[in-house]
Every structure is written in structure tokens, then in C-alpha cells.
Amino acid sequence: MWLQLLIAAVFIAMVISLAMGAVFLIRDNVSSRRLLLSLKWRIGLACLLMALIIFGYWSGQLG
């Protein structure tokens, strides 16, 4: 149960990071680094999400 909630929270955080990246892409000037920071967060969250899903299947909690 807790693992599923954690996976959902990480997925929602990824969607929020994606939306923030879109806003930064549209509104910021060329020299802004916020878009790159948003991409870094999204990559990190994606790695965490994959690790949680793999752990969930390995431990039998998502099987």
C-alpha cells in the first residue's frame, strides 16, 4: 500500500516537473537555467520511479 502511494507521488511530481519545464520554455529567456534544472529533476524522478517499480515487483508487492 505504501509503495503504491509512493509510486503515485513520484509520478505526480514528474508531471508537475514536466509542466514547470513547459512554462519555463515558453516564458524564460535564452540564458535561463531553470529549464535545465527542471529536466534534471525529471530525470532523477524517472530513475527513482523505475527503481521503485522494480523493487515492488522484486519484493512481490506489485505482483
Descriptive notes:
This protein has one domain. Helices cover 83% and strands 0% of the residues. It is built from 2 helices and no strands. Helix 1 packs antiparallel against helix 2. The longest helix has 26 residues. The protein starts with a helix and ends with a helix.
In short:
The chain has helices spanning 2-27, 34-59. It is mainly alpha-helical and 63 residues long. α1 packs antiparallel against α2.
Oligomerization: single chain
End-to-end gap: 12 Å
Number of domains in the coordinates? 1
Count of DSSP strands? 0
Question: Can you count the helices?
Answer: 2
Main sheet makeup: none
Using only C-alpha atoms, the radius of gyration works out to: 15 Å
Structural class: mainly alpha
Please report which band the strand proportion falls in: under 5%, 5-15%, 15-25%, 25-35%, 35-45% or over 45%. Answer: under 5%
Described by the principal axes of the CA atoms, the overall outline is elongated
Helix content: over 70%
Uncertain runs: none
What series of H and E elements makes up the topology?
Answer: HH
What is the mean predicted local confidence, pLDDT?
94
Transmembrane segments: 6-27, 39-58
Keywords: Membrane, Transmembrane, Transmembrane helix
Protein name: DUF2909 domain-containing protein
InterPro entries: DUF2909
